[in-house]
Design goal:
The complex is a heterodimer of chains A (140) and B (168). Chain A has 140 residues and is an all-alpha fold. In chain A, 79% of the residues lie in helices and 0% in strands. The N and C termini of chain A lie far apart (59 Å). Chain B is mainly alpha-helical and 168 residues long. Classes of the chains: A mainly alpha (140), B mainly alpha (168).
């Protein structure tokens, strides 16, 4: 094996080793949230105001995390319960783009300033994306 | 800005989580087993992605110099950098947090924060999941949301970089 490849493997292994406790911690947190919070309580949080619901949807999606498929399933259920498309969109977009549970890992690996700025702007943009998407889809 | 020293802070973070789990074991023992089962299920699912990301890191560390990265994804990079950030964000698989070590590596090598933010925002658009999104929300919705998200991701990249520059 050439020397540069050995160095590349060692460097990558070191980076992964530093990330490992953070990743395991985040996964444990996710697992705990999944076991402790019943999914049935989510829909009771919404009002009938599209703008406010988009913020609530974005907030809910920011707190929860997991496979995007789960967010589609929950979002589909929300729609059936009469929750607005904008709120559901904010929920499924924030589910992937904003991560309160991931935040400690993001801070430790990408820097506090970057992680907080990215998550805050993603939260605000998620509401805007949701309102624009719902408006365009409503026009089609 | 100086980042939290990951080698120690990470272990402290894990220790806090273990303490929380220990408390849960006493206060709400019925939640412990479902949590650990969920955790094991996720771990088994992410192992292939973990291996893939590690391989990507080795390839980048072996063949791509920081100078090359800065040339293609540094301050002076134009449309090509944005396009690559968007496309790689869309085609990348696995959970968000698995990409942090690789992105951290790239950040240290001089890749623009805006591209990292754009990459992360585009992770919301997943090609294999589009049929499922169409099933739940319709074709028009899936197309509109994907397009709006791509535009928003670039806007977010610019915004993150601008805010960070102002703070500095």
């Amino acid at each position: 094996m050439d020397k540069k490849l050995k160095q590349a493997i060692a460097k990558s292994a070191k980076a992964m080793y530093h990330a490992l406790p953070v990743l395991i911690g985040v996964l444990l947190l996710l697992s705990l949230a999944s076991a402790l919070i019943p999914k049935s309580i989510y829909s009771s949080l919404f009002s009938k105001n599209i703008f406010l619901d988009s913020i609530i949807g974005s907030g809910l999606g920011s707190i929860l995390a997991g496979n995007p498929i789960t967010s589609y399933i929950i979002g589909g259920e929300f729609l059936k319960q009469g929750i607005s498309l904008a709120a559901v969109t904010a929920f499924i977009v924030a589910w992937v783009t904003v991560g309160l549970v991931h935040l400690p890992a993001e801070i430790m690996l990408l820097g506090k300033k970057f992680a907080i700025t990215r998550n805050l702007t993603a939260f605000v943009l998620t509401v805007i994306v949701a309102l624009i998407t719902a408006s365009i889809v409503g026009l089609l | 800005m100086k980042k939290t020293e990951p080698s120690r802070a990470g272990w402290y973070f894990l220790l806090i989580i273990i303490i929380i789990y220990t408390l849960i074991a006493f206060l709400k023992p019925e939640a412990l087993l479902p949590s650990l089962n969920f955790f094991l299920g996720v771990i088994i699912n992410v192992i292939p992605m973990f291996i893939l990301i590690f391989t990507l890191m080795v390839i980048i560390n072996r063949f791509v110099s920081p100078q090359k990265l800065v040339k293609h994804f540094g301050k002076k990079t134009g449309a090509k950098g944005w396009l690559i950030a968007v496309i790689t964000g869309i085609i990348s698989e696995g959970p968000l947090y698995l990409w942090y070590p690789l992105l951290s590596d790239l950040q240290k090598k001089g890749v623009r924060n805006s591209f990292i933010a754009t990459f992360l925002y585009n992770r919301a658009i997943k090609l294999p999941l589009l049929p499922l999104m169409v099933y739940y929300f319709g074709l028009a919705y899936a197309i509109v949301l994907s397009l709006v998200m791509i535009v928003a991701s670039i806007f977010q990249g610019l915004l993150v970089e601008r805010i960070m520059e102002v703070k500095e």
